[in-house]
User: Which sequence fits this backbone?
């Protein structure tokens, strides 16, 4: 019976954990999954977003509200970011993965150190009323600090899915990755579309940052542990499917949670990568991706 | 310079290194020089795959750390001498390289890069959970006293690293001049075109993975002897992975000189800088330099130079 | 006709919902000069990719010299003597022009002696001789096309497949390339030419195949193809419309 309780708890925690991971991965599902830009700086941007949320929280603002507020300036930062990337590479004939990966790697370091310089290496957290309390359903207990951010995910996933598959701009984003020429023939500027998509991805990062910092305190390097995990999710999902991203994230969340409960928490970081390697070896198109 | 002559010069340098302890009394120089040479090896090893073939490896520290732990394990379990620790570490690195490459290279270069990020964390997790290797807190490594000639352990490992560096550079140089190097350059430029010319791209990439991984792991093997202590945080340090990438990019990735120049420059600056500034700024500086080079001088310092020089023909290259 | 050198049977290839090719079948005899024409997107390049091993066909088999090569990797086919040029040039950047030719010589089918002289000879024949020592990335788009062809020649192929090797060349240059290819064919090499430049294919080929939406819609002598109403409709109609 204890084992069953433990398992139930682990699965519940895993689902909650997974939907928070999904939030972290959504931006990457756009940049890497759809646009094929290997933005390894995404988790660092999430952490920068978390710090931005902490700043507004000082003034008593709710973290989620703060995240929403910040998402607008972050959208514009994303535009600038893409512009820098595009001018550095795409104009040059682009497509050199080594160089663009290296660029993003460098950028993530600069973000991290900028945070260290500005705030030091101490942990930062937000103040919310419900920290420390849990929702109890029978033997299952889920802390609100996990539950609340996890509940943002379905909303964001739904809205994003709606945007990408029902609006003209959203469809253009998908189309531009597929065939740039066809889009420009249709009278849409492909660079502008990609820049816009990158802006949305960056705006999503700050919302993910808000969710992450509710779950627990962050330090400037907190993004690193997520790099492999978010890529694992995007690849497992099948590059750029939005509902698939949520499902893949939950699979990874549950797997990690089970390992934490039944093996040892110290094994958990390896789980996502084991799944990533297995996916790449066995089903490189991902679980929900079509053959490309 | 032909390859035999090149190897001869390298060998002479190694022999000259034997006499350094007599000329330089202060062991600090060997202590710092060891790190610089270690980066020459890492950067050279990284460049075999990253430079010649164009496949980014973010996980140099996985290979370095695996080499260090393999060496420590071989010593603890069997008491093997340093030379066998190095060979064992190289074998482990080659295996890791081939395994990672085999799983990911068939698909796309980006996945390989991401898998290498993953590899660091997987190995670190593994070590964390292995009691025998000291877990998270690390393990002491008391190496037997060095040959009396060297006057001290530091001088000895410095020389050992000099030997490894000489071997690594000669290997890189040989690859570059041989048909393998030409095939790797073809892969870097265009894999479909390389295939259409009869280049077995997958096999060649796996070979490059193996050699690159082996060299980087060999760079880690003397590390436990050097510090007498081994822990996961320093063995799998991010700075190693970052430097492995930055040094060839700064020097230039097209030939053996680039990583050597990049490593000598950057590692020396870092050795001087760590005395004066914090390690955070160290990382920041490398990050900024990395961005600047990728954006402004993607061919590195040597690329800037050869933009003025006239192109020359490389003639050598035996048959497969 | 004796046993064909290359034989394609019921080969088809789809990308997702798009059926790009087939099923098609065709035989190529040793020493033949075959032209393949067809409007944009009709599956010509896809067919070549299936033959040379860059795509694995969904159905069908490909055999070469009586051997089933359907599942052979591309580089093995290249070593067997199947050589191609790419429609969009894929130069080996970071190498000089002449070193580009040394790659197929290093890895290719025959162990050619006097590599360098051969390579220089080939460069002369396509008109790239004075670019010999320039880095490939400095070539113009036109020169890249010539390099593409030169590199395919350097592999000393048994079958040369040229995918739009002459697009953008001047009339004089087309004549030069055609005479190189005639020469090559006289030396016993089978040539498959994919081309939009009608007068060039028609002049060169002994037999022409016309593809349309992945199907062979016409096949025969250049005269027959030129006058075929089906071909006129899908091909020349579209050409004049553009
Ligand atoms: N890698 C690919 N992925 C998806 N679709 C592809 C791919 N390659 C070709 N296609 C599609 O297959 C069809 C046939 O293309 P193909 O390149 O074979 O035509 P083609 O006859 O060579 O045309 P062109 O004269 O323009 O070169 C086209 O609809 C094209 O969009
Ligand atoms: Mg084509």
Assistant:
């Amino acid at each position: 019976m204890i084992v069953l309780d433990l398992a139930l708890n682990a699965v519940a925690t895993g689902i909650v954990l997974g939907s928070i991971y999904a939030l972290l991965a959504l931006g990457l599902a756009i940049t890497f999954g759809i646009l094929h830009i290997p933005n390894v700086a995404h988790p660092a941007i999430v952490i920068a977003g978390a710090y931005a949320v902490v700043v507004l929280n000082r003034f008593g603002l709710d973290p989620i509200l703060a995240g929403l507020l910040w998402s607008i300036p972050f959208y514009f930062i994303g535009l600038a970011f893409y512009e820098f990337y595009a001018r550095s590479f795409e104009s040059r004939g682009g497509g050199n993965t080594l160089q663009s990966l290296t660029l993003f790697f460098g950028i993530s370091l600069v973000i991290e150190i900028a945070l260290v310089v500005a705030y030091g290496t101490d942990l930062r957290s937000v103040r919310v009323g419900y920290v420390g309390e849990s929702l109890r359903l029978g033997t299952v207990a889920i802390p609100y600090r996990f539950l609340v951010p996890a509940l943002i995910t379905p909303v964001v996933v739904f809205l994003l899915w709606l945007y990408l598959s029902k609006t003209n701009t959203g469809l253009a984003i998908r189309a531009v990755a597929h065939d740039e020429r066809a889009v420009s023939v249709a009278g849409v500027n492909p660079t502008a579309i990609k820049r816009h998509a990158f802006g949305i991805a960056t705006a999503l990062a700050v919302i993910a940052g808000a969710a992450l910092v509710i779950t627990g305190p962050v330090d400037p390097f907190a993004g690193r542990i997520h790099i492999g995990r978010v890529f694992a999710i995007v690849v497992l999902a099948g590059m750029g499917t939005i509902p698939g991203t949520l499902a893949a994230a939950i699979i990874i969340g549950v797997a990690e949670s089970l390992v934490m409960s039944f093996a040892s928490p110290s094994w958990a970081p390896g789980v996502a990568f084991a799944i990533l390697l297995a996916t790449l070896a066995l089903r490189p198109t991902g679980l929900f991706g079509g053959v490309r | 310079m032909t390859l035999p002559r090149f190897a001869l010069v390298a060998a002479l340098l190694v022999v000259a290194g034997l006499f350094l302890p007599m000329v330089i009394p202060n062991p600090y120089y060997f202590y710092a020089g060891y790190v610089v040479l270690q980066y020459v090896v890492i950067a050279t090893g990284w460049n075999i795959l990253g430079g010649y073939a164009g496949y980014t490896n973010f996980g140099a520290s996985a290979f370095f750390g695996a080499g260090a732990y393999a060496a420590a394990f071989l010593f603890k379990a069997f008491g093997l001498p340093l030379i066998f620790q190095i060979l064992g570490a190289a074998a482990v690195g080659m295996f890791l390289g081939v395994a990672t490459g085999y799983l990911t290279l068939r698909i796309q270069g980006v996945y390989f890069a991401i898998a290498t990020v993953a590899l660091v964390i997987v190995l670190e997790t593994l070590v964390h959970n292995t009691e025998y290797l000291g877990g998270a807190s690390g393990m002491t490594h008391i190496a037997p006293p060095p040959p009396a000639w060297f006057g001290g352990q530091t001088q000895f490992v410095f020389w050992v690293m000099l030997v490894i560096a000489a071997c690594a550079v000669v290997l890189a140089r040989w690859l570059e001049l041989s048909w393998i190097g030409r095939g790797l350059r073809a892969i870097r430029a265009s894999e479909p075109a390389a295939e259409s010319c009869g280049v077995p791209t997958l096999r060649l990439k796996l070979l490059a993975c193996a050699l690159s991984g082996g060299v980087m792991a060999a760079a880690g093997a003397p590390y436990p002897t050097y510090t007498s202590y081994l822990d996961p945080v320093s063995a799998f340090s991010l700075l190693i992975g970052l430097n492995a990438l930055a040094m060839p990019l700064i020097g230039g990735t097209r030939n053996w000189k680039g990583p050597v120049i990049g490593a000598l420059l950057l590692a020396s600056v870092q050795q001087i800088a760590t005395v004066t500034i914090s390690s955070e700024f160290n990382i920041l500086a490398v990050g900024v330099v990395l961005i600047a080079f990728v954006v402004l001088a993607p061919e590195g310092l040597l690329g800037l130079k050869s933009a003025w020089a006239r192109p020359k023909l490389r003639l050598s290259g035996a048959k497969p | 006709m004796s046993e064909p050198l290359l034989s394609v049977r019921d080969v088809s290839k789809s990308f997702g919902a798009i059926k790009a090719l087939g099923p098609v079948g065709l035989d190529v005899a040793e020493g033949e000069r075959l032209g393949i024409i067809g409007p944009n997107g009709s599956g010509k390049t896809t067919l070549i990719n299936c033959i040379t091993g860059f795509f694995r066909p969904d159905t069908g088999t490909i055999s070469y010299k009586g051997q089933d090569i359907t599942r052979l990797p591309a580089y093995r086919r290249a070593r067997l003597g199947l050589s191609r040029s790419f429609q969009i040039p894929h130069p080996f950047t970071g190498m000089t022009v002449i070193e580009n030719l040394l790659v197929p010589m290093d890895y290719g089918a025959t162990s050619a002696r006097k590599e360098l002289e051969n390579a220089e000879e080939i460069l002369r024949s396509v008109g790239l001789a004075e670019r010999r020592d320039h880095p490939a990335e400095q070539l113009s788009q036109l020169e890249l096309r010539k390099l593409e062809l030169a590199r395919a020649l350097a592999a000393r192929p048994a079958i040369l497949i040229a995918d739009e090797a002459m697009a953008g060349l001047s009339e004089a240059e087309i004549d030069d390339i055609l005479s190189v290819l005639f020469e090559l064919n006289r030396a016993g090499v089978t040539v498959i030419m994919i081309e939009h430049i009608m007068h060039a294919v028609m002049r060169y080929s002994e037999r022409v195949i016309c593809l349309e939406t992945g199907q062979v819609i016409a096949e025969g002598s250049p005269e027959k193809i030129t006058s075929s109403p089906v071909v006129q409709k899908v091909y020349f109609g579209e050409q004049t419309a553009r």
